[in-house]
Amino acid sequence: MNKKIIFGQNVIENKIKVLGQQISNDYSKCNKDILMVCVLNGALMFFSDLIKNIDCDVFIDTMQVSSYGDSSVSNGDPKIVKDCSIDIKDKHIIIVDDIIDTGTTLKFLKEYFLDKGAVSVKIAALLDKNNCPDLGDYVCFDCPKGFIVGYGLDYAQHYRQYPYIAELDGI
Ligand code: IMP
Ligand code: MG
Fold this sequence. Notes:
By secondary structure, the protein is of the alpha/beta class. Helices cover 23% and strands 31% of the residues. It has helices spanning 9-27, 44-52, 104-115, and strands spanning 3-7, 34-40, 59-66, 79-82, 92-100, 120-128, 138-142, 148-149, 165-168. The mean pLDDT is 94.
């Protein structure tokens, strides 16, 4: 399948450093625990880069939500496949995801964490297709509305390992 690289590795890493610094500054005076939650599998690469650039004390955990199955078409009904193991109550939660598309998954997760007693819930995303303004609190890049792969993002489980972000042709 043809692809067009839209963000290269250096650009991504530099932007993640800036985002990490911004998050560190915003949370430096927090008097409650901070929990950063990686939404598997798409946010894996972004998450591991981001947490290396956070210089306040944070807990980390992972969760998995299914909404796309194995295709590129969302069924719009998120379900928790793997939950966090760390208790959410009384913590500041930063959800880290790969991309904000319709926003369905992240709105669902935000509600979920608030229901579990989180003090606050913010969203960090590598990419934003801008269909859902104001949902992302920390976003690396706005991106085209086409189908995006690489740096953790997949098309039917392919292309996640690319160290760059690309747009696929003909999807
Ligand atoms: P939502 O539509 O915002 O709920 O997006 C749900 C999930 O679909 C995201 O977290 C991604 O894992 C995946 N997704 C949405 N758009 C793309 C894309 O362009 N490429 C790869 N995955 C995507
Ligand atoms: Mg995802």
